[in-house]
Amino acid sequence: MTEHTEGSEHTEHTGHGEYARYTVGAEIADHAAPEGPLAERWERRRLGARLINPANRRRLPVIVVGTGLAGASAAATLAELGHPVVSFCYQDSPRRAHSIAAQGGINAAKNYRGDGDSVARLFKDTIKGGDFRARESNVHRLAELSTQIIDQCVAQGVPFARDYGGLLDTRSFGGAQVSRTFYARGQTGQQLLLGAYQAMSRQVAAGNVTVHARTEMLDLVVVDGRARGVVVRDLVTGEVSTHLAEAVVLATGGYGNAYFLSTNAMGCNASAIWRAHRRGALFANPCFTQIHPTCIPVSGAHQSKLTLMSESLRNDGRVWVPVAGGDTRAPGAIPAAERDYFLERMYPAFGNLVPRDIASRAAKRVCDEGRGVGPGGLGVYLDFADAIERLGAATVEEKYGNLFAMYERITGEDPYTVPMRIFPAVHYTMGGLWVDYDLQSTIPGLFVVGEANFSDHGANRLGASALMQGLADGYFVLPTTLTHYLAAGPFGAVDADDPEVVATEQGVQDRVKRLLAVDGDLSADHFHRELGLLMWEKCGMERDAAGLREALARIPELRAEFWARLRVPGSGAGLNQSLEKAGRVADFLELAELMCLDALHREESCGGHFRAEHQSPGGEAARDDDSFAYVAAWEYTDGPPVLHREPLAFDNVTLATRNYA
Amino acid sequence: MKLTLRIWRQKGPEDRGGMVAYDVPDASADMSFLELLDVLNERLTASGEEPVAFDHDCREGICGACSLVIDGVPHGPQKATTTCQLHLRHFRDGQSIDVEPWRAAAFPVVKDLVVDRSGLDRIIEAGGYVTAPTGAAPEAHATPIPKADADAAFEAATCIGCGACVAACPNGSAMLFTAAKATHLGLLPQGKVEQDTRVDAMIHAHDEADFGGCTNTGECTAVCPKGIPLGVIGRFNADVLGAAWRGR
């Protein structure tokens, strides 16, 4: 890539012709972040925020899209404050949002174990885990709020694990040497989500929240430069309608399903944030995708999704492959001396608990060397034999029983007697819509929370911090910052017949018709699978310039095929799951190009973004802080996208090479 | 393996609906039951026919969206397993399998295998929560909870709200679901405070949503993918009676 000079145009060429152009626009900055000592910034922001008297809050409705940890907690809390909240989710009940599937736990700097944990240490671990590509202010706030989250959830009746004295139990997770992860067996996400859903349900009963389930957001209404509503489709009746409010909150999760196979739920999609991006919200760090090291390997071409085995398993499970390539003996027949416990060998200080990006790449490397296990050689063992011998099967069952049962159901193998086979898979997207410290996007009045924003995880998310971020945003940050925004209003009345509103709704209607009218011969799933395979191969665990260029040439072709050969059976007038799917795949086909372009322009390796050209002699990720210590925030245009850089400042942690050895 | 599926097709709530047979000649033992439907749907789409509508999302047994009655049993023949986690290795080559939606008065059919389970949400809205506003919760260690209570509360809390209990119950009762939630919250000190008003409100919402009465047949626990024990219903009934006795 050429010099990054403002206003210049960057073009790459391949045999396929010209593609992948972008221009560089003005630098951006986070103007909402307070100055001063790091530990005082959130307190300052809170004290500086304007308030609204309770009688006026009733006149300031807010739309919240998505009902996962971030969305449900935001809806519950904003409604408690007195704002009428209108909530949307595509599932048949808000309780089914994908946060429910999180297994392992939620971090908090409580130091209940006396093992030296503190807010400062959680902050440092998270910044380091994210490979120094997250903002200090945001991450520190997250660490501060973590302790309040646990208190709040316990008050709601979330049944966290407890020890015999009746106090809360904790365990450790990848990337940390302290035991700060609170958990509810292997179902922490479920219990936290039900807590937030129940808090929201209480507000539904009180008349403060209206839930529209089985309803999908298909566009954002922007009037006079402010987000003022959403256009949605009722998935049961097919009716397209517009809902208006004083502000809009997107809590719609991540876009990992761009890869087709991922650990996301099947319905997870990027449409809400992608439509907002097309309306002017910048999209930050789209190439930062976390690959999780412990997923159940693919079993065949029919595979529809990948199932994660919680990272907490690495507390007791030992990861290994045979020393020799092509060793097809049963795992039990391979003596200890002929096993390579490669994580323990390569990273003795953290062992099996190295962060996810490190563990994933190590697994890939041993498989690339021909030492992988299972069908196709795409797997490594996660072995509990030593733990069962040390702790007894009963204790292991108590800790991980439901995960073992799940593994057995999917693979037909019993992990108490045979080691699990695991392989890395797409798990979490750290990129998302750009937001400032107040969680406001570049469209005033559009707030983005949880996985849908880019803000707190840098280039790699530490385990057990996604749940923390979703709840911090919804329960504690938005009630301060969104309220501050609303206090500056009112922003003028918006009517259903305003030209912008009418045009936005018409655009949605037209797009639905267009999807139905293609009348080709291939399903949306067909295109999704092909896109996913391309993304996994060219923009997956390891990327290089040649592969990314190939993908950037292929994606526009695939998109053209989609719009020429798509077939959506049925009509737009009722429940039509093929139509839902087609709309989401159409957006993935656009987002995927931006992901590849972002990956191509970032000529360094960091976290989940590993460029083959940029590695240390030992094969570790080589960051380039002089050139790339910035957030890449992309602006949508009808032509090439515009790159806006937000430089990152590290005043409180020292930029250092990540070392887990 | 080759399988024949007899699937309930119903265009909408007003349509009468009926079983339609489809052959899937190229199923694999490693497929999940929903992946089998994916394969069928791809074929239907290619032939210009409308695919079979069914609810599903996480496909790892936790979201509670999937909901098929397979050969007469909600979530199929394997115990303690959701449909998405049911794999074809538990079926025989050449087998013919009936696939139907949840059937209950409180769960009207939306289309094909998709039903409306919003009645379950209304039960939670009535009282399935702890009144704990955000912002000033006490320190989490302020109230120790005996491990046995915490574990029992957790067992009850694992309910995924799929509605299989309702589909299996001859009365279409949602007592297992309702009782699981009330037991989870009632076993914890935080939730005990409002247990009387909670159980009273929840049982009324249960009846209003058109769920039937419980006669302790136990079909619900037999099909529950999370193994919620029948004991939660006894406990709930005692709580409801206690609340009535105390006049709340």
List the helices and strands and how they pair.
The complex is a heterodimer of chains A (661) and B (248).
Chain A: E1 9-14, E2 17-24, H1 41-48, H2 54-57, E3 62-65, H3 69-81, E4 85-88, E5 106-107, H4 119-129, H5 136-156, E6 181-182, H6 188-205, E7 209-212, E8 215-223, E9 226-234, E10 240-244, E11 247-250, H7 271-278, E12 283-284, E13 289-295, E14 318-322, E15 339-340, H8 342-346, H9 356-368, E16 380-383, H10 385-391, H11 393-411, E17 420-429, E18 432-433, E19 446-448, H12 466-487, H13 499-517, H14 524-538, H15 545-565, H16 577-601, H17 625-628, E20 630-635, E21 642-647
Parallel strand pairs in A: 2-21, 3-4, 3-11, 4-7, 11-19
Antiparallel strand pairs in A: 1-2, 5-6, 8-9, 9-10, 12-18, 12-20, 13-17, 14-15, 14-16, 16-17, 20-21
Helix pairs in contact in A: 3-6, 3-12, 4-5, 5-12, 10-11, 14-15, 14-16, 15-16
Chain B: E1 3-9, E2 18-24, H1 33-46, E3 68-70, E4 73-74, E5 96-101, E6 109-111, E7 114-115, H2 118-127, H3 147-157, H4 164-168, H5 175-186, H6 189-192, H7 195-208, H8 219-223, H9 231-245
Parallel strand pairs in B: 1-5
Antiparallel strand pairs in B: 1-2, 3-4, 3-5, 6-7
Helix pairs in contact in B: 2-7, 3-5, 5-7, 5-9, 7-9
